[in-house]
Amino acid sequence: RKGVSPPQPFGARLRFLAEADRLKTVLRGTTIFDGSRRENSAEHSWHLALYAIVLGEHSVTDSDPARALKMLILHDLVEIDAGDAPVHGNHDPALQEAKEQAAADRLFGMLPEDQGTNLRALWDEFEAAASDDAIFAKSVDRVQPVMANLECGGGSWIEYDVTIDRLEARVASKIRLGLPAVWEALRPAVEDWFSPEGKAPAE
Amino acid sequence: RKGVSPPQPFGARLRFLAEADRLKTVLRGTTIFDGSRRENSAEHSWHLALYAIVLGEHSVTDSDPARALKMLILHDLVEIDAGDAPVHGNHDPALQEAKEQAAADRLFGMLPEDQGTNLRALWDEFEAAASDDAIFAKSVDRVQPVMANLECGGGSWIEYDVTIDRLEARVASKIRLGLPAVWEALRPAVEDWFSPEGKAPAE
Ligand SMILES: [Ca+2]
Fold first, then answer.
1. How far away, in angstroms, is A9 Cα from ligand 1 center?
2. B80-123, pLDDT tens digit by residue?
3. Residues of A with CB below 8 A from B40's CB?
4. CA A49: distance to chain centroid?
5. For B152, nearest residue in chain A (alpha carbons)
6. How far is the CA of B75 from the centre of ligand 1 (A)?
């Protein structure tokens, strides 16, 4: 196998970009919208970027679209080492966070120092949901799986036996912080699905 | 199957985002970097966005990173209808362009009119390589498959029986317009692969 090993800064940047390719092999709890297979975290991140472009004007935070886009492209890279922790799963949050911090150290540490520091700061900001851009980006990250599950007839809501109360606590509450009107637009279909009739398989 | 059908503008935007999901099922000529499977156009678009973030400072055009990022997120959507036309394949360019124009009409036409017009204009600009942002974005789109092929031992260069002259004409010439220093950094490994010894399978 011929690797890519030119001198700095290209060597560092190109090795980081090659390593990032592995995000295409990290599988999530949700499926693609036709339900045919699990979604991977790279294509998921692309979809979120498209959501941010299309839904940006509904953001209630004073968000800079370019920063939010960057965050969404970067936000799942740590899953290369730490794996995906499905929002409705029962992972240990402290352990998962420790794994993700170690992954961020390793991955952003592959880049030339200034750039690694800048991109790591953007990832930290996203993780902390500590700014208008991060709140918007987090809303986008929460709303896309709701649509995936509605489109494929339940998806991870069935697999993880999710209740509407848990959806409210872990998902809707986050969407409302950044994209309340989008949540209101989706709510009737969500409530319908969680109603006793909604979960019954189609005839 | 429960669809998503709230009123305008959400209905239009959410239906567009659901339709866009199909890009995850469009397979390209190249593989992911470990060679284990074909790459799909959605995860490819994510990877290009990351390339643009990481390599932006090497752009020789006066490119606006936010516009280039948007272009890269949008640029392959037309493949949902038109399919991927591999750069080393022998498709009819006029026919492929007609298919892509029809696809752009349909897909961007799903959005509220102002937004559809804006995003379509960005896609047209990318296709025409008619601006600094588009030249940078096109360079990124050409350089990532070179790295994929180097990483997996040849990939689509073997499948399409590519010569270094064809690579120069269809790929390197485009990379040089936007990211000449990145091409120079990759060139020794590329020339090595295309040398008589380089193509020999590893012992
Ligand atoms: Ca492309």
1. 25
2. 999 998 888 888 999 999 999 999 999 999 999 999 999 999 99
3. 43
4. 10
5. A1
6. 7
Residue B20 belongs to some domain of the structure:
yes
Q: What average pLDDT does this structure show over A27-37?
A: 96
Closest Cα in chain B to A151: B3
Residues of chain B positioned with their CB less than 8 A from the CB of A42: 42-43, 46-47
Rg (CA), chain A: 18
| A73 touches A45 (CB < 8 A) | yes
Q: Which of A57, A73, A123 to mutate to test the interface with B (most CBs of B within 10 A)?
A: A73
Residue-range definition of the domain harbouring residue B133: 10-199
Contact B54, A16 (CB under 8 A): yes
H-state helical runs in chain B: 10-20, 41-55, 65-74, 79-82, 93-108, 113-128, 132-151, 156-159, 164-167, 173-178, 180-194, 196-199
Query: How large is the ipTM?
Result: 0.94
Instruction: Give the tens place of pLDDT for each residue, B41-66.
Output: 999 999 999 999 999 999 998 888 89
> What CA–CA distance (Å, rounded) separates B118 from A48?
19
Provide the number of structural domains found in chain A. Answer: 1
- Of the candidates B34, B19, B18, B53, which has an alpha carbon nearest to the alpha carbon of residue B152? B34
Mean pLDDT calculated for residue range A55-65: 91
The overall average pLDDT reported for chain B is: 93
Compute the average pLDDT of residues A102-122.
98
CATH at residue A122: 1.10.3210.10
Q: In this predicted structure, what is the pLDDT of residue B98?
A: 96
Domain membership of residue B112 (yes or no) is: yes
Strands A38-40, B27-31: pairing kind: unpaired
Instruction: Say which residue the tokens 């360079």 belong to.
Output: B139
Say what percent of chain B tops pLDDT 70: 95
Alpha helix (H) ranges present in A9-131? 10-20, 41-55, 65-74, 79-82, 93-108, 113-128
Assigned domain for A203 exists? no
CB contacts of B183 in chain A (<8 Å) are: none
User: How many helices and strands, by DSSP H and E, does chain A display?
Assistant: 11, 2
Q: Are A65 and A186 in contact (CB under 8 A)?
A: no
In a domain, B30, yes or no: yes
Q: Are B80 and B25 in contact (CB under 8 A)?
A: no
Reading the block at residue A75, the tokens are 């936000």
